[in-house]
Known about the structure:
The chain is mostly helical. The chain is built from seven helices and no strands.
Amino acid sequence: MLETAIIRRALVAATLVLLVMVGLFITNFSRQHAFLYWSAMFPAFGAICAWHLIKADDLRTNQPLWQIMLRLVLHWAGPIVAVRILFLQLARGQMDAAAVALMAVMLLAVTCFLAGLHLDGSFIWASVLLAIAAIIGTDVEAYIWLIAAVALIAIAIAAYAATVLMGRRRNLPP
Length: 174
C-alpha cells in the first residue's frame, strides 16, 4: 500500500507540473486563452486534490465529506479572483505576459502549499515543484530545453504511475 501511495503522489506531482508547463507556454502566445487556462487550473488542481484525498482515504477529520469538499471548493476557487486581477494588469499594460504567467504559477504554488498544510502533506511537495518551475520560468528562453525535459519526465512519470495504478486495480480481488 505504501508503494501505491508513493505512485499516486508521483502521479499528482507530475500532472500538476505538466499542467503548469502548458500554462507557461500558452500565456506567451494568447492572452485570452491564457486567462481561461489559468482560471481553469485552480478547479483542476482542486479536483486532483479531492481525488487524491478520497483515494488516500485519509481525511484526518470527523467532518462530513460534504464539508470537506466545500472547503476544497472554496480553497481552490478563491484564487481565481487573483488570477482575474493579474490579467486585468496584463490588459492595462502594467505587467507583461511572462510576469503574469509566473505570478499565476506562484499563486498556484502558495495555494498548493496551503492545501498541503491543511489537507494533505503531499501537496507541499507539489508546491515546491511549482516554485521551482516559477524560478526556472523567470528566464524561459535560457532554460527552454530544461523545461521541455522536465515536461517530458513529468509525462513519463504520470503515464507510468497511471499504468501501475490501473494494473493494480485489475489484479485486486473483487
